[in-house]
Amino acid sequence: MKNRHFAKRHVEEGIFKALMIGSFALLSASLGFILLTIIIKGLPALNLAMLIQTPKGGYYLGKEGGILNAILGSLYLAGGGTLLALLFSLPLALFLKVYTNHSHWSDMVRLALDVLWGIPSIVYGAFGFTIMLALNMRASLLAGIIVLALLELPIMTRAMDEIIRMTPFDLEQASLALGATRLETAVHVVLRQMLPGIVTAILLAFGRGIGDAASVLFTAGYTDRIPTSLMRPAASLPLAVFFQLSTPFPEVQRRAYASALILTAIVLTISLGSRWLSGRLGKFVVK
Amino acid sequence: MQVRRPASSLGVRRRRERTARGSFFILAALPLFLAMAILLALLFRSWPILKTRPLWNLLTDKIWLPSQDQFGFYPFIAGTLWVTVVAMILAVPPCLLTAIYLVEYARPRLRAFMKPLLDLLAAIPSVVYGVWGMLTIVPLVQAIGPGVGKLLGFIPLFSSENPTGFSILAGSIVLAVMVAPFIIAVTYEVLHAVPDGYREASLAVGATKWQTVKYAVLPKTLTGITAGVVLGASRALGETMAVLMVVGNVPKVPSSIFDPAYPLPALIANNYGEMLSIPLYDAALLTAALILLVIVLAFNILSTLLLRRIAMRAKG
Fold it and tell me: What is the DSSP letter of A64?
């Protein structure tokens, strides 16, 4: 009797361990599966022309050309959005740390940021579009940048905030004890301390911005030209994938796969790059 | 003898400090202001339709014919919920098991390998998930649909009448993979925070590892796991592109996982921009955005409050 009980719980242990390893393997395998699918489908259609040309006449019917417009458009959009978001989120994150570390006010701000983070990007897009209609603006690079900045602001601020929170309070106190004001402490001590965190947060937000389609769908529009002005529409990679995929021509659909491969490569490079960079910069941080 | 003076006088430094404090304070109001602005702008723009018909009718009417002035949101709300619920059913068990495995069983090297893996999964753009879904999941669902329909078709949930594969199931599978990193990350943190004393006490009286997890660790973490699941669900609710590409987009109330559906985000993405000629269409689409926002906000605030409660309790 005792032995059977012993056996039963060990069988249960074995079953659940197998299930856990299975789940872990399943998740790792799906990542591999996704990457493999995109590479296998995208690589054959990828060529230099896609990277360095804009769509020529009849491109969407299968004639020649490339998606340089979308690559550059995406970089402009995500780059601009990230810069704009950085302008606000860096002071905000510093403020949360240096001025109001554990007050109700900072709790409220953090809650608001979490709520903003959860808002779907399509809602940001719709919101941006209503504002544009109110201002009588057309779809443009500028509108896309602003909406992406709104989308990235909570991501970036929260990522920075999480990292700044880990800087030792002693450092701050030491600076304040020497007579530095809070602003000086923020700029000269905390800011340096959080440099790796800032870099990670910026790259994280950039990656989110460049991959987001729903928010730029109505706000940045789409065009076959390389954007030359903030007031003109701008193409973007996710939308390039989407639009090429919705055409009935296999040739164009293959280019959609190649575009998806380019986008994935950019995003994964950023993700891995930020890991590497923050490791390098982390060397100078006081633990 | 010359005394080196500080670069700025005390007065200047004080003034700078005051300015910085003031502007930071204003800046900190920005997120609150933005959240309010989004809610109000959507409410304002959807007002033309909200004021002409009762909210209850809008939410429960099944017919969507904008050209004939019929705006029933029920099919879209149902589609959103179907896709999300099925995705969560698919995602939660493996995610929980993975998180438990990583915290309780895995060696540090495997754990170190997990973090970048989850980051990568979270970093892949949704349109890429959509492409993947169209290329692999949709054909898969198309292939298994008739078989499952024949076997389990007597249960309405599994009856298969849609030959294309663009279905709730396809959308849910794609979503399940997309939300996995979120659920695992939260669950992992929550499990990790359980003090080792609980585990040691349980192991010391002779429990196996799984028994320890089941009786000592999991009960302590139920709130946190719920928060993680709710957070994952709120991500799934708002996901646009990936779902839009594989879910079929038919404005009908689904009754089986093989039916196509038309979630709210897809409705907005597909129709916004070409709606200007039909009266009230614009207001209707923004009402869709508003409904979506309210659902997502409810989920979000719930998960945040749950996580806060845990943090409070941990603080003592």
Answer: S
Q: Which residue has the tokens 């304040």?
A: A176
> What is the domain extent for residue A18?
2-45
Q: Are A267 and A241 within 8 A, CB to CB?
A: no
Look up residue A35 and give its two tokens: 């990457």
pLDDT band at A183 (very low <50, low <70, confident <90, very high): confident
Give the domain CATH number at A111: 1.10.3720.10
How many domains does chain A fold into?
2
Contact residues, chain A, for B101 at CB < 8 Å: 17, 20-21, 23-24
pLDDT digits (tens, 9 = 90+) for A237-251: 999 898 888 888 888
* Residue carrying the six token digits 């799934």: B236
The answer on A203 and A76 residing in a single domain is: yes
Q: Which residue type is seen at A243?
A: F
Separation between Cα atoms, residue A82 and residue A38, nearest integer Å = 27
* A133 shares its domain with A96: yes
pTM over 0.95: no
Instruction: Give the per-residue pLDDT at A145.
Output: 93
The nearest CA of chain B is from the CA of A30 a distance in Å of: 7
Query: What pLDDT was estimated at residue B178?
Result: 92
Whether the Cβ atoms of residue B231 and residue B186 lie closer than 8 Å to each other: yes
> How many Cβ atoms are within 10 Å of A18's Cβ, its own excluded?
10
Q: How far is CA B218 from CA A223, B188, B207, B215, B312, in A?
A: 53, 12, 14, 7, 19
Same domain, A57 and A189: yes
Token pair for B102:
């990583």
CATH code of residue B152: 1.10.3720.10
Top residue of A113, A123, A146, A244 to mutate, by most chain B CBs within 10 Å, is A123
Its ipTM equals 0.89
Residues A25 and A154 placed together within one structural domain of the fold: no
- Tokens 């992992």 belong to B188
Rounded CA Rg of chain A: 24
- CA distance to partner chain B, nearest, from residue A284 (Å): 22
CB A152 within 8 A of CB A204: no
